[in-house]
Amino acid sequence: MLSNIRIVLINTFHPGNIGAIARAMKNMGLSNLYLVDPNDYPSEEATSRAAGAVDLLENATIVNTLEEAIDDCSLVIGTSARHRTFQLPIMNARECAETVIPEAKEHNIAILFGRETMGLLNEEIAQCHRQVYIDANDEYPVLNISQAVQIVSYEIWMAHQNEQTHEKTVPEYPRKKEMDLFYEHLEETLYGINFVVRNHPGKVLDKLKRFFNRSRPEKQELGILRGVLAAVDREAGLNDGQSHAVKKAKEEQTPE
Ligand SMILES: C[S@@+](CC[C@H](N)C(=O)[O-])C[C@H]1O[C@@H](n2cnc3c(N)ncnc32)[C@H](O)[C@@H]1O
């Protein structure tokens, strides 16, 4: 179950932080580390700071883009010490762990940590369903990244211990790439019926994405929404209700 939870570090600058994070994760039973375009890696400093968790570094997945790190995830959580313009539902580290543990039985989950200098970019937060803010002194709430990972990992470990005595069932959620196909279809339909004007799209599509990420439709609900779009397409005479995104979704439907 804990192996379905991945810690994703974006553009981490100091290799020592990567090593310290591997150690913090292993102490708390986590093993799945993703590095998105790290600044200086592999590195002796990372290996030395990892101490007994060098195996996590050896098995880390290194990717160039955030998309590659989260495509097959059904829940993406961004950590940030800042409040954002487009606010997502905010959880503290304990609430995050209590959400993550039951879902990790069925789904891949990504928890994103930002750059040491400027954290997560707004477009990265926009890919998340939830935000985690680790409660801290309002005058200086910005933790070192490895300490932030340590706290989140500790809460996950504690919630995991607790879960073994209190089992919960969770609904099935779509993966990120299934949500992306839905967004593609939504966009085509809204352009097709001139609800959004192609040359002047404004912020409507971004706001709708934000809304759906916040409300997190279940897999079955997403199927209904896709059906609604197909019916709109048919009524409006758009491509026989078979948009590019719908065809792609059908092709990509693989047994779970
Ligand atoms: C040093 S902080 C980045 C600080 C950056 N100046 C900013 O404003 O986001 C590096 C990373 O640690 C995590 N972090 C640090 N403090 C946090 C907090 N209080 N709550 C949640 N995440 C935190 C976030 O992932 C953040 O991107």
UniProtKB/TrEMBL annotation:
Xref: InterPro entries: Alpha/beta_knot_MTases, RNA_MeTrfase_TrmJ/LasT, SpoU_MeTrfase, tRNA_m1G_MTases_N
Alphabetical UniProt keywords: Cytoplasm, Methyltransferase, S-adenosyl-L-methionine, Transferase, tRNA processing
Record keyword Cytoplasm present: yes
Broad EC category: transferase
Subcellular location per the Swiss-Prot or TrEMBL entry: Cytoplasm
Classification lineage: Bacteria, Pseudomonadati, Pseudomonadota, Gammaproteobacteria, Oceanospirillales
GO molecular function: RNA binding; tRNA (cytidine(32)-2'-O)-methyltransferase activity; tRNA (cytidine(32)/uridine(32)-2'-O)-methyltransferase activity
CDD domains per record: SpoU-like_TrmJ
Name of the molecule in the record: tRNA (cytidine/uridine-2'-O-)-methyltransferase TrmJ
Gene Ontology biological process: tRNA nucleoside ribose methylation
Similarity comment: Belongs to the class IV-like SAM-binding methyltransferase superfamily. RNA methyltransferase TrmH family.
Listed EC numbers: 2.1.1.200
GO CC aspect terms: cytosol
The keyword Cell cycle is annotated on this UniProt entry: no
Subunit composition and interactions: Homodimer.
Function: Catalyzes the formation of 2'O-methylated cytidine (Cm32) or 2'O-methylated uridine (Um32) at position 32 in tRNA.
Catalytic activity of the protein: uridine(32) in tRNA + S-adenosyl-L-methionine = 2'-O-methyluridine(32) in tRNA + S-adenosyl-L-homocysteine + H(+); cytidine(32) in tRNA + S-adenosyl-L-methionine = 2'-O-methylcytidine(32) in tRNA + S-adenosyl-L-homocysteine + H(+)
Domain tRNA/rRNA methyltransferase SpoU type as annotated: residue spans: 5-154
Xref: NCBIfam families: PRK15114.1 (NF011694), rRNA_methyl_1 (TIGR00050)
UniProt organism field: Marinomonas aquimarina
Alphabetical list of PANTHER family matching this protein: TRNA (CYTIDINE_URIDINE-2'-O-)-METHYLTRANSFERASE TRMJ, TRNA/RRNA METHYLTRANSFERASE
Main localization (coarse): cytoplasm
